[in-house]
Design goal:
GO terms for molecular function: alkanesulfonate monooxygenase activity. The protein is built from nine helices and eleven strands. It has 274 residues and is an alpha/beta fold. Helix 2 runs parallel beside helix 3 and helix 3 packs across helix 5.
Length: 274
Protein backbone atom coordinates (compact mmCIF):
# COMPACT_ATOMS: atom_id res chain seq x y z
CA UNK A 1 0.00 0.00 0.00
CA UNK A 2 1.29 3.45 -0.84
CA UNK A 3 0.32 6.93 0.25
CA UNK A 4 -0.57 10.27 -1.28
CA UNK A 5 -2.75 13.28 -0.60
CA UNK A 6 -6.03 14.57 -1.95
CA UNK A 7 -6.59 18.30 -1.81
CA UNK A 8 -8.02 21.46 -3.33
CA UNK A 9 -5.45 23.68 -5.05
CA UNK A 10 -6.57 27.31 -4.75
CA UNK A 11 -5.18 30.82 -4.95
CA UNK A 12 -5.18 30.94 -1.14
CA UNK A 13 -3.11 27.81 -0.50
CA UNK A 14 0.31 26.41 -1.29
CA UNK A 15 1.11 26.55 -5.00
CA UNK A 16 1.02 23.22 -6.86
CA UNK A 17 4.68 23.11 -7.83
CA UNK A 18 5.86 23.65 -4.28
CA UNK A 19 3.35 21.10 -3.02
CA UNK A 20 4.49 18.52 -5.58
CA UNK A 21 8.15 18.92 -4.59
CA UNK A 22 7.28 18.73 -0.89
CA UNK A 23 5.31 15.53 -1.35
CA UNK A 24 8.04 13.78 -3.32
CA UNK A 25 10.72 14.87 -0.86
CA UNK A 26 8.71 13.33 2.00
CA UNK A 27 8.12 10.00 0.28
CA UNK A 28 4.51 10.41 -0.83
CA UNK A 29 3.55 8.57 -4.00
CA UNK A 30 0.69 10.65 -5.39
CA UNK A 31 -1.11 13.98 -5.55
CA UNK A 32 -4.82 14.07 -6.41
CA UNK A 33 -6.62 17.39 -6.85
CA UNK A 34 -10.29 18.32 -6.91
CA UNK A 35 -12.24 20.15 -9.60
CA UNK A 36 -15.05 22.68 -9.65
CA UNK A 37 -15.23 25.04 -12.61
CA UNK A 38 -17.40 27.46 -10.62
CA UNK A 39 -20.04 27.55 -7.88
CA UNK A 40 -23.40 29.10 -8.79
CA UNK A 41 -24.43 31.92 -6.45
CA UNK A 42 -27.91 30.44 -6.04
CA UNK A 43 -27.28 27.03 -4.49
CA UNK A 44 -29.90 24.33 -4.06
CA UNK A 45 -27.95 21.05 -4.15
CA UNK A 46 -26.90 19.94 -0.66
CA UNK A 47 -23.19 19.40 -0.18
CA UNK A 48 -22.62 15.75 0.82
CA UNK A 49 -20.03 16.81 3.40
CA UNK A 50 -22.33 18.90 5.57
CA UNK A 51 -24.36 22.09 5.78
CA UNK A 52 -21.88 24.80 4.76
CA UNK A 53 -19.90 24.57 1.53
CA UNK A 54 -16.23 25.25 2.39
CA UNK A 55 -14.45 28.26 0.90
CA UNK A 56 -11.99 26.12 -1.09
CA UNK A 57 -14.77 24.87 -3.38
CA UNK A 58 -15.18 28.37 -4.80
CA UNK A 59 -11.51 28.89 -5.71
CA UNK A 60 -10.08 25.73 -7.29
CA UNK A 61 -7.44 25.86 -10.00
CA UNK A 62 -8.05 23.96 -13.21
CA UNK A 63 -6.85 20.48 -12.22
CA UNK A 64 -4.74 19.81 -15.29
CA UNK A 65 -2.89 23.11 -15.02
CA UNK A 66 -2.19 22.41 -11.34
CA UNK A 67 -1.10 18.83 -11.97
CA UNK A 68 1.19 19.88 -14.82
CA UNK A 69 2.89 22.38 -12.51
CA UNK A 70 3.46 19.59 -9.97
CA UNK A 71 4.54 17.07 -12.59
CA UNK A 72 7.28 19.13 -14.19
CA UNK A 73 9.13 19.67 -10.89
CA UNK A 74 8.95 16.02 -9.78
CA UNK A 75 10.20 12.70 -11.11
CA UNK A 76 8.17 9.97 -9.40
CA UNK A 77 5.02 11.58 -8.01
CA UNK A 78 1.85 10.31 -9.68
CA UNK A 79 -0.61 13.07 -10.51
CA UNK A 80 -4.34 12.50 -10.63
CA UNK A 81 -7.77 14.09 -10.56
CA UNK A 82 -9.93 13.52 -7.55
CA UNK A 83 -12.25 13.84 -9.30
CA UNK A 84 -12.53 15.28 -12.80
CA UNK A 85 -16.12 16.28 -13.47
CA UNK A 86 -16.33 14.51 -16.81
CA UNK A 87 -19.98 15.44 -17.30
CA UNK A 88 -18.84 19.08 -17.51
CA UNK A 89 -16.03 18.48 -20.00
CA UNK A 90 -15.82 17.98 -23.75
CA UNK A 91 -14.43 14.44 -24.19
CA UNK A 92 -12.12 15.30 -27.08
CA UNK A 93 -10.50 18.11 -25.11
CA UNK A 94 -10.35 15.93 -22.00
CA UNK A 95 -8.59 13.16 -23.91
CA UNK A 96 -5.97 15.61 -25.17
CA UNK A 97 -5.47 17.21 -21.72
CA UNK A 98 -4.89 13.92 -19.94
CA UNK A 99 -2.69 12.52 -22.71
CA UNK A 100 -0.64 15.74 -22.63
CA UNK A 101 -0.30 15.47 -18.85
CA UNK A 102 0.80 11.85 -19.22
CA UNK A 103 3.42 12.97 -21.74
CA UNK A 104 4.88 15.83 -19.70
CA UNK A 105 4.94 13.62 -16.60
CA UNK A 106 6.44 10.65 -18.49
CA UNK A 107 3.57 8.32 -17.69
CA UNK A 108 2.42 9.44 -14.25
CA UNK A 109 -1.14 10.64 -14.96
CA UNK A 110 -4.25 9.11 -13.37
CA UNK A 111 -7.79 10.10 -14.34
CA UNK A 112 -10.19 9.98 -11.41
CA UNK A 113 -13.74 10.46 -12.71
CA UNK A 114 -17.19 11.10 -11.36
CA UNK A 115 -20.53 12.73 -12.07
CA UNK A 116 -20.53 15.25 -9.24
CA UNK A 117 -23.24 16.44 -6.85
CA UNK A 118 -23.80 20.13 -7.69
CA UNK A 119 -26.75 20.10 -10.05
CA UNK A 120 -26.70 23.87 -10.60
CA UNK A 121 -23.05 23.70 -11.66
CA UNK A 122 -23.62 20.92 -14.17
CA UNK A 123 -26.70 22.63 -15.63
CA UNK A 124 -24.51 25.65 -16.42
CA UNK A 125 -22.49 23.31 -18.65
CA UNK A 126 -25.61 22.12 -20.45
CA UNK A 127 -25.77 18.82 -18.57
CA UNK A 128 -29.11 17.38 -17.46
CA UNK A 129 -28.57 15.96 -13.95
CA UNK A 130 -31.10 13.21 -14.66
CA UNK A 131 -28.93 11.67 -17.39
CA UNK A 132 -25.51 12.47 -15.98
CA UNK A 133 -24.52 8.85 -15.26
CA UNK A 134 -25.20 7.77 -18.84
CA UNK A 135 -23.30 10.84 -20.04
CA UNK A 136 -20.36 9.98 -17.76
CA UNK A 137 -20.15 6.48 -19.21
CA UNK A 138 -20.19 7.64 -22.83
CA UNK A 139 -17.63 10.38 -22.33
CA UNK A 140 -15.19 8.06 -20.56
CA UNK A 141 -15.59 5.44 -23.28
CA UNK A 142 -15.05 8.12 -25.93
CA UNK A 143 -11.88 9.31 -24.18
CA UNK A 144 -10.56 5.74 -24.11
CA UNK A 145 -11.22 5.40 -27.83
CA UNK A 146 -9.38 8.66 -28.54
CA UNK A 147 -6.40 7.45 -26.48
CA UNK A 148 -6.11 4.02 -28.05
CA UNK A 149 -7.25 4.30 -31.69
CA UNK A 150 -5.39 6.05 -34.50
CA UNK A 151 -8.68 6.91 -36.21
CA UNK A 152 -11.09 7.09 -33.31
CA UNK A 153 -14.83 7.35 -33.63
CA UNK A 154 -17.75 7.15 -31.22
CA UNK A 155 -21.49 7.00 -31.75
CA UNK A 156 -23.68 7.15 -28.68
CA UNK A 157 -26.70 8.82 -27.19
CA UNK A 158 -24.75 11.90 -26.04
CA UNK A 159 -21.33 11.66 -27.72
CA UNK A 160 -21.14 11.32 -31.46
CA UNK A 161 -18.20 11.87 -33.78
CA UNK A 162 -16.93 10.29 -37.00
CA UNK A 163 -13.31 9.09 -37.31
CA UNK A 164 -10.79 11.65 -36.04
CA UNK A 165 -7.06 11.93 -35.47
CA UNK A 166 -6.27 12.88 -31.88
CA UNK A 167 -2.67 13.09 -30.64
CA UNK A 168 -0.67 12.92 -28.48
CA UNK A 169 -1.44 9.44 -27.26
CA UNK A 170 -0.65 8.72 -23.60
CA UNK A 171 2.65 7.20 -22.52
CA UNK A 172 0.96 4.54 -20.41
CA UNK A 173 -0.21 1.40 -22.17
CA UNK A 174 -3.06 1.06 -22.93
CA UNK A 175 -3.86 4.38 -21.23
CA UNK A 176 -3.72 6.19 -17.86
CA UNK A 177 -5.69 4.39 -15.14
CA UNK A 178 -9.31 5.48 -14.77
CA UNK A 179 -10.42 5.55 -11.14
CA UNK A 180 -14.18 5.74 -10.63
CA UNK A 181 -15.30 7.76 -7.65
CA UNK A 182 -18.37 7.19 -5.49
CA UNK A 183 -19.96 4.57 -3.29
CA UNK A 184 -23.57 4.40 -4.45
CA UNK A 185 -25.56 1.30 -5.33
CA UNK A 186 -24.47 1.35 -9.00
CA UNK A 187 -20.86 2.49 -8.55
CA UNK A 188 -19.44 -1.01 -8.99
CA UNK A 189 -21.28 -1.30 -12.30
CA UNK A 190 -19.37 1.74 -13.53
CA UNK A 191 -16.03 0.51 -12.18
CA UNK A 192 -16.47 -2.82 -13.94
CA UNK A 193 -17.96 -1.28 -17.07
CA UNK A 194 -15.37 1.38 -17.89
CA UNK A 195 -12.94 1.83 -15.01
CA UNK A 196 -9.62 0.44 -13.86
CA UNK A 197 -10.18 1.08 -10.17
CA UNK A 198 -12.47 2.31 -7.41
CA UNK A 199 -11.93 5.54 -5.46
CA UNK A 200 -14.45 5.99 -2.63
CA UNK A 201 -14.35 8.77 -0.04
CA UNK A 202 -13.40 7.55 3.41
CA UNK A 203 -16.42 7.34 5.69
CA UNK A 204 -19.04 7.92 3.00
CA UNK A 205 -20.56 4.54 2.34
CA UNK A 206 -17.37 2.63 3.23
CA UNK A 207 -18.41 1.28 6.63
CA UNK A 208 -18.07 -2.35 5.46
CA UNK A 209 -14.97 -1.74 3.40
CA UNK A 210 -13.37 -5.19 3.37
CA UNK A 211 -16.60 -6.85 2.25
CA UNK A 212 -17.17 -4.18 -0.40
CA UNK A 213 -13.70 -4.61 -1.88
CA UNK A 214 -14.07 -8.39 -1.88
CA UNK A 215 -17.43 -8.11 -3.65
CA UNK A 216 -16.07 -5.72 -6.27
CA UNK A 217 -13.09 -7.92 -7.09
CA UNK A 218 -15.23 -11.04 -7.23
CA UNK A 219 -17.74 -9.40 -9.57
CA UNK A 220 -14.99 -7.99 -11.78
CA UNK A 221 -13.04 -11.25 -11.94
CA UNK A 222 -9.82 -9.34 -11.38
CA UNK A 223 -7.93 -7.50 -8.67
CA UNK A 224 -9.47 -4.06 -9.08
CA UNK A 225 -7.21 -1.33 -7.72
CA UNK A 226 -8.71 0.58 -4.79
CA UNK A 227 -7.67 4.10 -3.77
CA UNK A 228 -9.18 5.49 -0.57
CA UNK A 229 -9.84 9.21 -1.00
CA UNK A 230 -9.88 11.76 1.83
CA UNK A 231 -8.49 9.44 4.50
CA UNK A 232 -7.88 11.03 7.90
CA UNK A 233 -4.19 10.89 8.87
CA UNK A 234 -4.71 8.50 11.77
CA UNK A 235 -3.04 5.13 12.41
CA UNK A 236 -6.38 3.38 12.87
CA UNK A 237 -7.64 4.61 9.48
CA UNK A 238 -4.45 3.43 7.80
CA UNK A 239 -4.73 0.01 9.40
CA UNK A 240 -8.40 -0.28 8.43
CA UNK A 241 -7.51 0.38 4.80
CA UNK A 242 -4.56 -1.98 4.87
CA UNK A 243 -6.62 -4.82 6.35
CA UNK A 244 -9.40 -4.28 3.80
CA UNK A 245 -7.05 -4.58 0.82
CA UNK A 246 -6.78 -0.94 -0.22
CA UNK A 247 -3.89 -0.27 -2.61
CA UNK A 248 -3.44 3.47 -2.02
CA UNK A 249 -4.41 5.80 0.78
CA UNK A 250 -4.92 9.48 -0.04
CA UNK A 251 -4.84 11.62 3.09
CA UNK A 252 -7.20 14.57 3.03
CA UNK A 253 -4.98 17.67 3.02
CA UNK A 254 -6.60 20.97 4.02
CA UNK A 255 -6.03 23.99 1.79
CA UNK A 256 -3.56 26.19 3.67
CA UNK A 257 -0.64 28.52 2.93
CA UNK A 258 2.77 27.00 2.30
CA UNK A 259 4.22 27.08 5.82
CA UNK A 260 1.17 25.49 7.41
CA UNK A 261 0.95 22.88 4.65
CA UNK A 262 4.61 21.90 4.96
CA UNK A 263 4.30 21.54 8.73
CA UNK A 264 1.22 19.36 8.30
CA UNK A 265 2.96 17.19 5.70
CA UNK A 266 5.86 16.64 8.09
CA UNK A 267 3.43 15.23 10.65
CA UNK A 268 1.63 13.02 8.12
CA UNK A 269 4.94 11.76 6.73
CA UNK A 270 5.71 10.38 10.17
CA UNK A 271 2.75 8.03 9.82
CA UNK A 272 3.85 6.53 6.51
CA UNK A 273 7.38 5.66 7.66
CA UNK A 274 6.43 4.35 11.09
Amino acid sequence: MDFGVSTFITDEGIDPARLGRALEERGFAALFVAEHTHIPVRRESPWPGGAELPRMYYRTFDPFVALTAAAVVTERLQVGTGIALVIQRDPIILAKEVASLDRVSNGRAILGVGAGWNREEMRNHGTDPRTRMRLLRERVLAVKALWTEDEAEFHGEFVDFDPVFCWPKPVQDPHPPIMVGGSGPTTFDRVIGFGDGWMPIYGRGTEDLAAQIAELRERAGRRVQVTMFGTPPKPEAIEECRAAGVDRVLFGLPTEPADATLARLDKIAGLIVS
